[in-house]
Amino acid sequence: MERARIARDLHDGVLQSLVGLELQIGHHQELMSRQDRPTMREIYVFLQNEIRNLRELVTRLRSVDLRPGEMLPFLVDVVERFGRDTGIASRFVCDSEDIILRPRVSSEITAIVQEALANVRKHSGARNVLVRFACSAGVWTLFIEDDGCGFDLDGKLSLTELDKTRKGPVIIKERVRVLKGELVIESTPGAGSRLIISAPVRPCDT
Q: For site-directed labelling of 118, which of 32, 51, 155, 169 has its Cα 20 to 30 A away?
């Protein structure tokens, strides 16, 4: 409830004010002298980027209540919207159409995808990103891979190894622990990265 209240306050307050400022700057750019336009353009681009960051934060703060069977269509929408908003070629693939998990599990998986995509946009410089979800032999697996700059590691590290070396995305690691799952990051500097998150499909998930 507290996270939802903060998200609502940010959206209705700070975010709306920044959007209003963005519109004003966009209008005044056309009225400025040619000499001053480059500086104003830098401010405008910076403001647009911060608005995008704040929107992503609001989205992640809001809890997503998904009923059984709604997760996959929702993830399709998340990935497609990410591609439209960023210009990064984005694709979602699912190896099965008949996956039903508990609402809490579905919400955590969705939050992990949103957090990972936000990190791709802000840090990776990627041109392509693939999100894949699979379920087989009683285990669901989420793959998120991109062709960006990679993490600050070279090779393949498990969640335990990431904790020991203090590497990897903190928020995603926390959500994997909530799911009692496993996380593996494969990365080569300058050659992209892959996150692999998996957990058993527990009896009450089906």
A: 155
Question: What are 88-131's pLDDT values in tens digits?
Answer: 999 999 987 778 888 889 989 998 999 899 889 888 899 999 99
Q: What does the pLDDT read at residue 142? A: 97
Spacing of C-alpha 193 from chain mean position: 14
Q: Domain segments of the chain: what residues?
A: 2-61, 71-205
Edge-to-edge strand ranges of the sheet holding 193-200: 89-94, 128-136, 139-146, 193-200, 182-187, 155-158
Identify residue 181 by its one-letter amino acid code: G
| pTM for this entry | 0.72
**Fold of the CATH domain 71-205:** Heat Shock Protein 90 (3.30.565)
